[in-house]
Write a structure and sequence with these properties.
Elements: E1 5-9, H1 11-19, H2 26-35, E2 39-43, H3 45-55, H4 64-77, E3 79-80, H5 97-104, E4 110-112, E5 125-126, H6 128-135
Parallel strand pairs: 1-2, 1-4, 2-3, 4-5
């Protein structure tokens, strides 16, 4: 079993984990792995701001205290890291570039996303279920 995997967690993974009623869902398992410090989340100020903005949207109706606690987990267990500019990749949504660039800033880091089609096909861009499989190796 692997521990201390570095990963950028796409916002959709966090939202899905918080909305899920299934404690065995891969998104919930990824979030639990962060709490258990098996995954060290990587982020920068831009990603952290997106987490805050998205989790605070009224359509999700997440309690302010829960949002604060989730953000605290990332601050406490994660690493704020500078992004490494990438020029040679194409992204359908330019807002996704920051997640990819932060993942590229740390050797052997992963990018965990529920929208794998939004990113270049690379071995480090994985779905939540693939991340759980990596942790269980």
């Amino acid at each position: 079993m692997r521990n201390n995997v570095f990963a950028v967690i796409d916002t959709n993974v966090i939202v899905s984990a918080l909305l899920s009623k299934d404690f065995n869902a891969s998104t919930v398992q990824v979030f639990r792995a962060i709490i258990d410090m098996r995954i060290t989340p990587l982020y920068n100020d831009e990603i952290f701001q997106e987490y805050n903005d998205v989790l605070s949207r009224s359509k999700f109706n997440f309690a302010k205290e829960n949002v604060k606690n989730v953000l605290s987990v990332f601050k406490t267990n994660g690493i704020n890291i500078k992004r490494r500019k990438i020029e040679d990749e194409i992204f359908p949504d330019p807002k996704d570039i920051v997640f990819y660039e932060v993942a590229m800033s740390k050797e052997d880091a992963f990018l965990v996303t529920g929208n794998i089609k939004h990113f270049p096909t690379k071995p480090f861009v994985v779905t939540p279920s693939q991340m759980i499989a990596i942790l269980n190796q």
